[in-house]
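look at this one:
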Amino acid sequence: MKIPFGKREFLVVTALLLLAFLVRFAFFSNQGYQIDTNDFMLWFQHAAEVGPRTFYNNNYWCDYPPFNIYFFWIFGLLAENLGVFGSTVFTYVMKLPANLFDLATAFLIFAFIRKRFTFKLALLGTALYAFNPAVVFNTAVWGQFDAIYTFFLVLSLFLVFESKPKWAVVAFMLGVLTKPQGIALAPLIGYLVLKKLNWNWKGTVVSVCVAVATVFAVILPFDWSNPVTFLSSKYFGAYNGYQYTSLNAFNIWAFGGIWVEDTQLTFLLGWTMFAALAAFALYFVSKSAKGKGNMEAAALFAAFVLFFGFFMLPTRMHERYLFPAMAMLALLFPLLKKTRPLYVVLTATCFVNQAFVLDALVAAYPSGPNLTGDPVLLIVSLINSVALVYVIMLMIGKLKGKNWLTAKLGKDTPPVAETKDKET
């Protein structure tokens, strides 16, 4: 993507991202949750020893999809060369990939806004993500990997907006091959890609072939005899291993308790509610995008709705699954006033959910904590539920004529030049 900013702006953005990395680096010494850290160390070490091809052989247990193994392999080799396996220093290497991708997402946010608005607004959106407490806690304190698939999902959206639908499919598939939660964005990406292709069946077939080719490109180095069973075992095996309504996620299911058995009824109810919300979000985009320049604003808001709804409605959600919504909210904050309260509120609830759960996990190690009925859980779940209702009411209001979706993000609003430097 060609980004219209000069040398001075480039230096400012670079300094901001460097500062964000230094802030994160200050938390790298935190060991996170012992079980998570031990699992990652074993996976990094195993990948460094055997490489991707035989990583999963002999029923080796790892509930992460195949694209992650490349990161385990690369940074595992780094940890091996540094001789940090088995030491507390390993967490510094373990946390590098997610935090680097986090900063890459922050730069994507800058690039998107800068092409359409002023440098100051672009810098604001970047800072709101790069220094978001919930985001920093996830990657720098706990050491989770949600930032990687989030980057690819955000990139897929931007590539659609740049009229590169096939590359958007590639980016989206890489996100799903990193974490299955990426499927939350599938309805919107599918709709936007088809719209960019003018609903042409040939373009649709090519896009499907691109998706399949991306999957095969990622899994080709691995040792498998049947790609379908290879992938299904990695995705459904892990998903079916956690058959509970809420896996420490402070969502609508948390009111009934944490780690409660997920029955067929609750499972179907949760996914039915999410499907209904996804359908409504697509309807919202199709109706809201009729005004000139509103397609991107509507699509970005719908992406946030899908991420938020995916965390709130289906069963078997972890506390971290609200993470991708932070990127959308940081991006929308300087553009849509109605989303600013959501950024503040959901940043707080996402941070509290993660911090409270991690503290409880560490304190109860090696057994798991019982958070059912905890006042913090109930209050945060209630706030999240009210926020979801607010989001739905915003969409209904827009469909009834309330014009809060006023950001002009189309080509009709060229970026405002704040420097005479040549474009970088």
